[in-house]
Amino acid sequence: MTISLAIDTATSRTIVGILDGDKVLFEGFHEGATEHGFAITELVVKALAVCPKPDQVVVGMGPGPFTGLRVGITFAHSFAMARDIPVIGVCSLDAIAVDQNEYTVAIDARRKEIYWASYKDGQRVAGPEVSKPAEVSGFIIDQYPDLKKLVALSASQNVSEPMYLRRPDAVPTAERK
């Protein structure tokens, strides 16, 4: 089986795991929307101390806040490059496990908005998008990507660019009005 280092930083939670196929060998997380930078390093060090070396890195590509995504994606690519192993990107919303046939999942996008996507029979049918919560009906929030699902999706997805759904806050001086 393939040993995967799985990372997701699309939410306020930094999630790291090592899986052998669908068997979780290590799973850890740290709460803190502004603490992804130090948390990811600590979690990976703990994982590598008790698990075999990974053959690939699977990383959540969002949607999510810019800084959190950048931390996880940059770490994943740097780790993989140093070891000459592949990186596979997966939509973070797709990895949220819900035991229903039809549902909409959402994560906090800050600024009184949510990132969301809808699913039917396990397939995404709408989104991902960013909206005000009042504009999306019946969504499930406060769930996090599941590492087993993240790794399983790596067989069918390879998202190569971060999923940023809104314009950056910072703009060049020449573009300001």
Automatic annotation (TrEMBL):
<dbReference type="Pfam" id="PF00814">
    <property type="entry name" value="TsaD"/>
</dbReference>
<protein>
    <submittedName>
        <fullName>tRNA (Adenosine(37)-N6)-threonylcarbamoyltransferase complex dimerization subunit type 1 TsaB</fullName>
    </submittedName>
</protein>
<dbReference type="InterPro" id="IPR022496">
    <property type="entry name" value="T6A_TsaB"/>
</dbReference>
<feature type="domain" description="Gcp-like">
    <location>
        <begin position="51"/>
        <end position="153"/>
    </location>
</feature>
<dbReference type="InterPro" id="IPR000905">
    <property type="entry name" value="Gcp-like_dom"/>
</dbReference>
<dbReference type="InterPro" id="IPR043129">
    <property type="entry name" value="ATPase_NBD"/>
</dbReference>
<dbReference type="GO" id="GO:0002949">
    <property type="term" value="P:tRNA threonylcarbamoyladenosine modification"/>
</dbReference>
